[in-house]
Write a structure and sequence with these properties.
Layout: E1 5-10, H1 17-26, H2 31-51, E2 53-58, E3 61-62, E4 66-68, E5 75-76, H3 78-89, E6 95-100, H4 106-112, E7 118-120, E8 123-124, H5 127-130, E9 140-144, E10 164-168, H6 172-182, E11 188-192, H7 195-203, E12 209-210
């Protein structure tokens, strides 16, 4: 039986690391700090309006959430649609500028590059990530499952003991797979930079399953 884990997904972090630091201290310090926080957020929004560009650290490997067509340079997916609607409702005539990111480096981009306004691309909320960036409210829930080749004999969790599990680097599944390996529930782990690379490995049976 394939194990399904329900996880909360998030869409974007509205402010960058500097803004977050002020926001956190504003909860503890006096009104001057709170005022500084408000000004920072207003400055960022004003900067976006003046430039007419919103910079997104985007994980674009999933057509479902956030995807950029390399031929037309157009973005699509659930989160891209939401972002376009946000721009519309704010009354901004802004275009989306993509800064390609992966699950391994999107946090670094968001917290160190002041030109990045938000991050997007099917990003899970975790306690560790919440210490570094601010999340919106969860926008939707999704069920995740193990993917195996069509002719696979894997049907139960106990069948995984001799299997190599493929995961995308930097995702919550990488840590889960590491735990499974430490508990001797799987044979080994293979990591990949993107989701398409992972699925290609499953299709060519370089790995027995993907998570």
């Amino acid at each position: 039986m394939k194990k399904i884990l329900k996880k909360l997904l998030i869409f974007i972090a509205i402010v960058n690391f500097i803004g977050i630091m002020f926001e956190c201290t504003a909860l503890k310090d006096n009104s001057k700090t709170a005022l500084a926080n408000v000004l920072i957020e207003e400055d960022r929004l004003q900067r976006i309006k003046e430039k007419g560009v919103i910079n997104v650290a985007a994980i674009t490997s999933s057509r479902t959430y956030f995807y950029r067509d390399t031929n037309t340079n157009e973005v699509s997916g659930i989160e891209a649609d939401i972002l376009n609607e946000i721009i519309k409702r704010l009354g901004m005539n802004a275009k989306i500028e993509i800064n390609e990111a992966t699950f391994l480096n999107f946090l670094e981009k968001l917290t160190t590059d002041d030109t990045i306004d938000i991050a997007s691309g099917g990003i899970f909320i975790t306690p560790e990530r919440e210490k570094l960036v601010a999340f919106t409210q969860p926008l939707y829930k999704i069920s995740e499952s193990i993917v195996v080749p069509a002719l696979s004999t894997i049907n139960f969790k106990s069948d995984l003991k001799t299997s190599v599990v493929g995961v995308v680097k930097g995702t919550v599944y990488e840590k889960l797979a590491e735990r499974w390996k430490n508990e001797n529930l799987i044979k080994d782990i293979a990591t990949f930079d993107t989701l398409p690379e992972l699925f290609n490995a499953v299709s060519s049976i370089k790995v027995e399953q993907a998570y």
